Structure formats: structure tokens, C-alpha cells
Prior knowledge:
By secondary structure, this protein is α/β, with parallel strands linked by helices. The protein has helices spanning 3-20, 25-28, 60-78, 116-126, 144-157; strands spanning 52-57, 84-88, 108-112, 134-139, 160-166, 178-185, 200-208, 214-221, 224-230, 234-235, 241-242.
Amino acid sequence: MSPLKGANVIAELQADILRLQGFNTVASSALDIEWGPIKAAFPNASFPLGAVHEFLTSGNEDRAATDGFIAGILSSLMQSKGTVLWISASRKLFPPALKNFGVEPDRFVFIDLSKEKDVLWAMDEALKCGALSAVIGELREISFNESRRLQLAVEQSQVTGFVIRNNYKSINTTACVSRWKITSLPSEPIDDLPGIGFPKWQVELLRMRNGKPGVWHMQWANGRLVPIYTSSSIWTNPQKKVG
């Protein structure tokens, strides 16, 4: 067997394994996000769609940063169509703020419930609906079995799920394909006025199934999520790469 043919066989086997694990690699390539070097952290260099992603927040500032980062992903995921369900028992998001990230709030259905157990049930049911672009659920705690049910649901529907764990008590094992922590960074000043530039975040990928953890800086600029720099590549601004 030639080296080229052997490499092709290995690539096909890797793609088969990812499909068996619920990764929709064809749909993932459609995300219009300039991930830059961060792509190397994802399986097949594509952000996994049709999967459940877990986000950890430690307070209101982290919560706002996480909401903004997810909204940036949704802006690419939804494109010109699609509906997202946002389910919570303690929602802080101000819907008109979604316009800052290129998505119209009228394409979201907000379900505000009184108990977290109801949030989990509603999210499980919503993730089975293939007509949705994504489902976001705000939960403080989620067990492995509960997360496994969500993951099984999206593997059938190919809907992308986001679990935001606000003020979590402990970090436990879940079946989510990834675990993130998003924190705010100071934005670039404009005309010497601080705090009014593009939103910036420190993006920590704590775990990615079949991927690589890492820490990067990203920002929302010119209607897109873009990397600023990573430990292996320097980015001075969203338009120009140095090095």
C-alpha cells in the first residue's frame, strides 16, 4: 500500500469514527467563523454541530461574556434562517442585545420556567425537533445521565445544543462533546474612551472530544467572531495576521 493510499484509509476511518460519535462534519464546515489556529482544536478542524456543548460561568460577568460568545456562534449558524429556543429558570439576557451579534431577537423563542428540572425536560424535548437551529438551556447542575440523554437527542435531530451552567457547584463528568469557559477582556479604546470597542473574550476550551484543549483570545468585529492571538500565533487585529 502506498503512503498516500494509507493516509486516505486512515482519514476515512477517522471520519467514520467521528460520524459514529455523532459529529456532523459536513454541516460543521458551513460555520462562517474565522477560527484561525483554534480550528486545530476541533475534530476535523470543524466546530461540531449536531452536538451538545457545555459552558461554565462563575458570575454575572462570565454569564454575559458567555451569552455574547454563543450569540456570535449562532449568528453564523443561523445565517438567514432558523429558530433558536432559549430555555431558563433565571434568564438575564436582554433580547434586543442580540442585534449586536447579527441575530434578530424575533428569531428566538424564550421559555422562562420556574424550576431547573423543568428546564432540563424542556431542553430534552426541544433538542429532538430537527426544525430548530439550536437550543440553549441554562442549568446550574447536570448529571452524566442527563447530559447523555441530551447528546442522544441531538445525534438523531442534528440540532446543536448549548448548556450554560451558571454558578455551578462542582465540575463533574458529562457526555457533552466540549466544555468551555468564557471570560471578558478589556475592549480596545476608541478615541481614548475605554469600554466601547469590540467585545473581547478569553476563550478556554477545557475539553473537546477527539480534540485539543487550549486558551485563546477572540473578539466580535465586523460582524464575525475572530481570533486575536493564541499561544502559537500572534493576531494584532481582526483583519491582519502577523508572523
